[in-house]
Automatic annotation (TrEMBL):
Domain of life: Eukaryota
Annotated coiled-coil segments of the chain: 285-319
Origin species: Culex quinquefasciatus
UniProt KW keywords: Coiled coil
Annotated protein name in UniProt: CRAL-TRIO domain-containing protein
Molecular function terms, GO-annotated: phosphatidylinositol-3,4-bisphosphate binding; phosphatidylinositol-3,5-bisphosphate binding; phosphatidylinositol-3-phosphate binding; phosphatidylinositol-4,5-bisphosphate binding; phosphatidylinositol-4-phosphate binding; phosphatidylinositol-5-phosphate binding
């Protein structure tokens, strides 16, 4: 509460004692001071009336008020000035306007209020004894001859508590609005995991500040004392406006609603502003809970998006790793193996080295197959830009891996053919040596027909070997 408003309320230039007229309109009492410093007091009155109208609900102000101007201690000239000032401040909200004058006034002046029809908002000058026509004595404060007890200091304490809650509420709403503005637009999902993580980190920091303020507003203190002890402590330990302790900040939210309810059940009269404030506090708490629920849902959605984008980023890193490994490491190892050998031993050694290369590629092939499965069966964000990027990279990885696998298979077939070729060549030379030993280097040949047949067989084998060599050269090329 601002200092000028608090000073104006402390002067008690206008107050709501809690009573009502016979038609049920809330009572506002405005005492006119006996000393002649009206400009100063009028400023306090204007500030007080504005505050009271702001503290009441629209339904209450629209229904109108029963205003009593207590002009028993002032001159009639001052009373007339106050009447005009009150009419300018409360004109649209005046249901009845009673001006109380002392008995001496009626002895000197003859005032007839029944000579003409009374209009709403016009003052009715009466004595204090005639208030019973408009009010029950139980509805009037003791200053006006009634029996209702009114403590203005306690009323100010209640208003300070309510204003403390409003201040906490405004701060909480501002924090929630800042958090909501920081959240990404649901219609425009975040495209990259890095962007979403930065946004999530910022939102979490704002959410922590908002939750601290909400903890004060929603009042999580479940272990408070009984209502009677609480009211006793409240009545005899007034809250000062400059108090900044944690206990003063906790007098908000549900505890405030409970306190007003306890006042209503224990006091014969309760001011209308407290009743309206209780409904306003309930409405504000509901607003906070709804706003918090909406923001919590948005935060959960953002966290879900971040988690999915992280998964996509992990898949993207895996695709990049597989593609890079195939195009660099695997390609280098394959290009280093271009020979086919010059005999059975060297060809078989090259075949074993190629099998080692294939074993080294199998691990990457397994990772490749896992990535293909995860990308094709990714359950969410099918239409997002991040998923489309991963899909494009997946197609490129698939092309690179399949092309490299085909080259490995051709290389393996060439080496197998080379081994078979050199084995046939070795077998050919072994058979040739046997023929040479038997026909050329051996004893005298008597069977020329057998020698001719073996020579023809040797020519056929040589022709077959030439054809096999030609096929190997074609395969290598």
């Amino acid at each position: 509460m601002e200092a000028d408003v608090l000073n104006a309320l402390n002067t008690q230039t206008a107050y709501i004692p809690g009573g009502r007229d016979r038609d049920g309109h809330p009572l506002i009492v405005i005492p006119v001071p006996f000393y002649d410093n009206l400009p100063w007091m009028k400023g306090f009155l204007e500030t007080t009336v504005k505050y009271l109208l702001g503290a009441l609900s629209e339904e209450t102000t629209a229904a109108g008020f029963a205003v009593i101007l207590d002009a028993q201690k002032c001159a009639w000239r001052s009373a007339r000035q106050y009447i005009r000032h009150v009419q300018s401040l409360l004109g649209p909200h005046l249901d009845s306007f009673l001006v109380i004058r002392p008995d001496a006034f009626w002895e000197k002046n003859r005032v007839e209020n029944c000579t003409r029809q009374h209009r709403q908002g016009e003052p009715i000058v009466i004595s204090k004894s005639r208030l019973v026509k408009h009010f029950d004595w139980a509805e009037l404060p003791e200053e006006l001859g009634g029996t209702a007890a009114y403590n203005h200091d306690h009323w100010i304490q209640n208003r300070l508590r309510i204003e403390e809650f409003r201040k906490s509420y405004d701060k909480a709403i501002a924090d929630l609005e800042n958090l909501q503005q920081a959240l990404p637009d649901p219609g425009r999902p975040v495209a990259r995991a890095s962007e979403s993580e930065v946004s999530l980190k910022s939102c979490r920091a704002l959410n922590q500040d908002a939750q601290k303020q909400l903890a004060q507003v929603l009042d999580g203190d479940r272990h408070r004392s009984s209502s009677n002890n609480f009211l006793k402590d409240f009545s005899f330990n007034p809250i000062k406006p400059n108090v900044t302790s944690r206990s003063s900040k906790m007098t908000v939210g549900n505890k405030l609603i409970s306190h007003i309810g306890d006042l209503q059940s224990t006091k014969p009269l309760i001011t209308q502003d407290l009743l309206d404030s209780r409904e306003q506090v309930k409405h504000m708490l509901n607003t906070l809970e709804k706003r918090q629920s909406t923001i919590n849902g948005a935060l959960l959605e953002l966290e879900r998006q971040v988690e999915e984008l992280r998964e996509l980023a992990t898949l993207e890193e895996g695709v990049s790793y597989v593609t890079s490994w195939i195009l660099t490491t695997a390609e280098t190892m394959l290009n280093a193996q271009l020979k086919v050998g010059y005999d059975v031993t060297t060809a078989d050694k090259l075949r074993l080295e190629h099998e080692i290369l294939e074993l080294q590629c199998w691990k990457t092939y397994g990772f490749y197959a896992e990535l293909i499965y995860k990308i094709d069966n990714f359950p969410k964000m099918k239409d997002s830009a991040a998923y489309q990027d991963v899909t494009s990279q997946r197609e490129w990885m698939d092309f690179v891996c399949r092309s490299f696998a085909q080259r490995l298979e051709r290389r393996r077939n060439v080496l197998i053919t080379s081994v078979r070729f050199y084995r046939l060549v070795a077998e050919y030379f072994d058979r040739t040596s046997e023929v040479f030993q038997s026909l050329i280097m051996g004893d005298k040949v008597d069977d020329f027909d057998l020698a001719n047949a073996k020579l023809q067989k040797l020519k056929d084998s040589q022709q077959t070997l030439g054809e096999l060599e030609a096929s190997v050269e074609v395969s290598v090329s």
